[in-house]
Amino acid sequence: MSQHVLDPIRSAAEPPIGIRPRSARRRRLGAVAAIVSAVVLSACSSPSEVESDSSSASSASGGDGGSVSSGSQELLDVAYEGRLGMPPTTATTPPEDVELWVVSCGEQVPSCAAPVAGAVEAAEAVGWTVDVCDGQLNPNGWGTCVRQAVSAGADVIIPIGIDCPAVQQPFQEARDAGVTVVGGGGADCDAVGGEALWASERLQLEGVSVQDMYVLQGKLAADWVIGRTDGQAKVLHLVFTDPLWGPWLAQGFADEMATCDGCEIVSTLEYSNQDVGSGTLPQKFSTALLQAADVNAVFVPVSGVLNAGLGQAVVASGRSADLDVIAALPVTPSYDVIRSDGGLDAVVGYPIEWGGWGSVDTAIRVLNGEEPEVQGDGFQVVDAENNLPEAGEPFTGGVDYQAAYREAWGI
Q1: Would you place residue 227 in the very low, low, confident or very high pLDDT band (cuts 50, 70, 90)?
Q2: Among 3.40.50.720, 3.40.50.2300, 2.60.40.730, 3.10.560.10, what is the CATH number of 4-14+87-205+353-377+396-409?
Q3: Which pTM was predicted?
Q4: Looking at residue 406, what DSSP letter applies?
Q5: Which is nearest to 76 in space by CA: 297, 214, 231, 206?
Q6: Residue 341 and residue 43: Cα distance in Å, rounded?
Q7: Fold of 63-85+209-351
Q8: Tell me: the pLDDT tens digits for 242-284?
Q9: In whole angstroms, what is the distance from residue 99 CA to residue 220 CA?
Q10: CA 91 to CA 105: how far, in whole Å?
């Protein structure tokens, strides 16, 4: 991967350490096969949204291995169908000689690193020069990265997993300097009543705001939990407090759980980037699990933390067989944890690298003075029996999104 990985801990006035010599790679790729055929979703979805090629199971079991009721099965079907779209088909020509900076929320976390890799791959495919700056799970680091990008003369900045309000002043400086900022899964400053500072957020599904995208993920997770427990869920609910979207995910989950008369959120564990970065989250989670002896389900907002100790904590508790554990924002290793019974039973499946390609498509269209288009990267619940990709393969929802983008870009 030919990009520079920058260290934001040093002062923005100092040259970053450990930078490889600058070199832009240009790949001119021929047209490839058209995207796979897809099945149109039900009336709750827009006409462009599709169901995964992986069919849902016709029946399901509750957490205790018994059959679920028809009402619970309906909720499971909703979760497995999810809501997934298609990449844009309107042709556009990527401009040349573009300097892109991708600001990562934290390369140590797979859910940050994977969409970064997708954005880098897409940008290199159209011949752009790419720099990656690691914000290291710290708003100070994110702001330093944005300022370094401006100082370096970036044409475009894509902040991955970062909300505008977290580093509003650096984004204001970027806009004032004429730098195009395109969202990479976060929300612009107008989400909290401020002034919009980005050229565009990434538009994922037709008519669905960034906030509602996260609410939808929480809802789908709750649908799966209610269905799996046949309406008798007792939940340990983890809430990620740092980003704007953490409470949005929690809202979507809690609101849907409230529709279930026999369900209850027994305990809530709030955690932050500091808990993840310092490695203290697994112990906090183990303690919360021990104290909530009657829970039969767990919702984790970011699946990457399962791979970083929480999955092991579930197994070590001796209760793995009695717990239905679901997480949002999965990465490819998350599916292997499901497959190996490693403390995770399901995820709200998301084609995470597709999101990086979608942000680059948005940047192309903004630079061309065109309207940003809906990118289609949506969600489907994945468990061992439904929608699970092949071992080692990323979840794509059955869509060859890279072929679709290359066709739209004419490369």
Answers
A1: very high
A2: 3.40.50.2300
A3: 0.81
A4: H
A5: 231
A6: 35
A7: Rossmann fold (3.40.50)
A8: 888 999 999 999 999 999 999 999 999 999 989 988 999 999 9
A9: 38
A10: 31
